[in-house]
Amino acid sequence: MVDAAITPPSDVDTLAAGGEHCSAHEATGHHGYAGDAQALQNRLRRIEGQVRGIQRLIDEDTYCIDVLTQVSAVKSALDRVAMLLLEDHLSHCVVGAAEAAATSGDATEVNEKVREAAVAIERLVKS
Amino acid sequence: MVDAAITPPSDVDTLAAGGEHCSAHEATGHHGYAGDAQALQNRLRRIEGQVRGIQRLIDEDTYCIDVLTQVSAVKSALDRVAMLLLEDHLSHCVVGAAEAAATSGDATEVNEKVREAAVAIERLVKS
Amino acid sequence: MVDAAITPPSDVDTLAAGGEHCSAHEATGHHGYAGDAQALQNRLRRIEGQVRGIQRLIDEDTYCIDVLTQVSAVKSALDRVAMLLLEDHLSHCVVGAAEAAATSGDATEVNEKVREAAVAIERLVKS
Amino acid sequence: MVDAAITPPSDVDTLAAGGEHCSAHEATGHHGYAGDAQALQNRLRRIEGQVRGIQRLIDEDTYCIDVLTQVSAVKSALDRVAMLLLEDHLSHCVVGAAEAAATSGDATEVNEKVREAAVAIERLVKS
Prior knowledge:
The structure is a homotetramer of 127-residue chains. Chain A has five helices and no strands. Chain A is elongated and about 60 Å long. Chain A has a single domain, classed as Methane Monooxygenase Hydroxylase, Chain G, domain 1, CATH 1.20.58.1000. The first copy, chain A, has 127 residues and is mainly alpha-helical. In chain A, 74% of the residues lie in helices and 0% in strands. The interface between B and C is medium-sized, with 25 and 25 residues. Chains A, B, C, D: Keywords: Copper. Chains A, B, C, D: One of its GO terms (molecular function) is metal ion binding. Chains A, B, C, D: Belongs to the CsoR family. Chains A, B, C, D: One of its GO terms (biological process) is negative regulation of DNA-templated transcription.
């Protein structure tokens, strides 16, 4: 039985279906993080292992402070993943949209990309 | 291949071996979170699933902002786990040591427990 | 003109009026931080100066990234103040209530103190 | 007497002297936040008042948990200031540099602006 009520609103499967794209990605046929996708996956697999390690710690009745140390370590590792994603978003989506705007004279997309980035950063700062 | 260099210093396996205990736990034969262990494990299993979901999002070239939203959601879910562990530590280890000190007149352990809790909280605030 | 809408719900003046006390404080006639009150005030005065420094930076049209660095520095300085207050709360109010409970057999106050501390820590982690 | 040891490395006066500028700002003769400078100053003045309010709370021996609530409120108010500065940096400095790069073909400055923003965001997430 899973206590679904506690989890922040997020639906991985729906998101995975597709959604938004930025023109810089469409031009190249892949997302900005495509180049670093392997590095991100390595980090995420290691994080997944750390989360399983915490489950084991609890099974083994480990001292709560030691478990807390691991939880903080996983949060920091997730921050590194977030920073890689964010820097990628800035250098590909935001910069790509700004370059497009320089040619087209239409700043709508670049403004939207900046707004999205700001919202994502705020969410990260609060999490 | 795992990029070990990026991970904060933490060694789950060593910790699991044992380490410190607090007298309140020794008295009852289990840790404070024993009662809530199942709820913690449910949360951690769900977090593990969320981390795997993020890996899938990256495989599927999902828009970076949507991936970031998931990373923030996992961080918030870890904060809930940390808060449960911390409240448990306070109500069992710290309070237990304080009660023991009231009888024995020796405040050494309770001071140490408070110090440990403060260090863990600071680490959490920074992560 | 002050943009009141942006500020989190907080009313310094109402709080200052009095409110809750813990029995450990009542016994000694002062709060746990009384001993460290001067150190806290020194830190807060320095933080106040840092906030004024940021106002000056904006007046002088300083590069935004340099202003951001100062904002992060003030947040970290506030975290130090928060940690001092929290450690004080744990070693005086929580421990004091636990010792009282050891004598009286009534755990109502200590449970309440732990709950309050947990709520304050969560708020801090999110801010 | 100021306890200098506790403060993160930062030197408001040196920074105020000048330092880096981005070409978008040089073109217009002011920083991106110039338009919002008044709103930022209002927020900062209110934050300065909140910090003074916390000093008063400590003078009046206010219950530590109530003081902690105020500290968290100030941290959240600083986050709002940081987000305004950051969004400004993205929409002016980063976007400006990207537009310049679209014309000149030289991506050096835009890459540097993105890097700086990423470092500032990471510092904010950790503070």
